[in-house]
Design brief:
Layout lengths: L33 E3 L2 E3 L35 E4 L8 E4 L15 H21 L2 H7 L2 H7 L8 H8 L7 E13 L2 E10 L2 E11 L12 E9 L8 E7 L4 E3 L3 E2 L4 E7 L5 E8 L5 H6 L9 E9 L4 E6 L5 E6 L16 E6 L1
Parallel strand pairs: 9-12, 11-17
Antiparallel strand pairs: 1-2, 3-4, 5-6, 6-7, 7-8, 9-10, 12-15, 13-14, 13-16, 16-17
Amino acid sequence: MRRWGGVRRWSQHARGGERRARARAWTILPLVALLAGAGSLSPAPALAASCAVPGATSRATPAATPGNGAASPAADASIIQVEEKGTPRAASLPARSAATPVAASESIEELARDLNAVANALAACISAGDAETVTRLASERVLGQIYGSSVPLSREEYIAIASSLTPVPTRIVSVEQIARTADDQATAVVTEIVANQLMTAEWTFEPAPAADRPNGGVRWRVTRERELPVTPPSDAATIAVGIDDHAFTLDTTRVKGPDVVLRGTNRGADDHEMLVLRLADGYTTEDLLRASGPDLPKEVTFIGELPVRPGAEGTLALVDLQPGVYTLVCLFPNPEGLPYLAEGLEATFTVS
């Protein structure tokens, strides 16, 4: 699920109270781990990062057997995951219409292969900027989440937004804890690197509408994503960031890379973000404030972003940073609609 399907959208800053879009477009790496419940599976074969609805795998359908990863939910209930961080809650499944049927006897190995294929295809399509195919692999809820919104986006809205934004490379690191939560629902914990930001989330998969699979193919699509706490590399350097309404305070401004963790504490009264950027030589934050359009200027590279609410703490884990100077800003709007950057909410740190 791309949670930033492309680039950091400045236009999202106008949506006060919603999670701002951090960019995410997808490039693909082989999935390095697949776990089924308590038992682990062998890694799935590396998949070609092609942007297309994955084709159906030719295979015999085995009989359902105990321990194949299938859950035994009540007839009309399942586990519904909310997008906020937290624990699952039991709820009735909403009615689904014209969905591609799912074979209840699909083994956990087959399920892992299919979810692997869908995740890779979705990543490849976002990386390629193929918005139309993205809409066949993700629900309208996820299309909204890609741009940091809790409000679903229609296909037409998503395609219009995606066409104006530059994709941000994302690598899928692992797909773990694959489980069937109902005959027509499955989940997996996905760890990925978005630009340079390490992230972990639970993805929910459900059958795609039959109209999106006119020629067959893997039946699943991504229908929601719930962010989970991330575990930074154990040897990452750490910067403690105090966030006030008009300034960042860093306990150090020089760290050894390539992995750096920013641990922010919002001491202000408003929502803020830790948005890390790499500016081209000669380009300044004043130039950034003067820039227009929904996309970041070409002189600015998105590195990572994390919103932090008043009184809260947040961890922004950055990996594979090249040596150089990085700029930390907050582009969230103040009550007058101006970015907090204009009030001095910026800082820099150097990675060696």
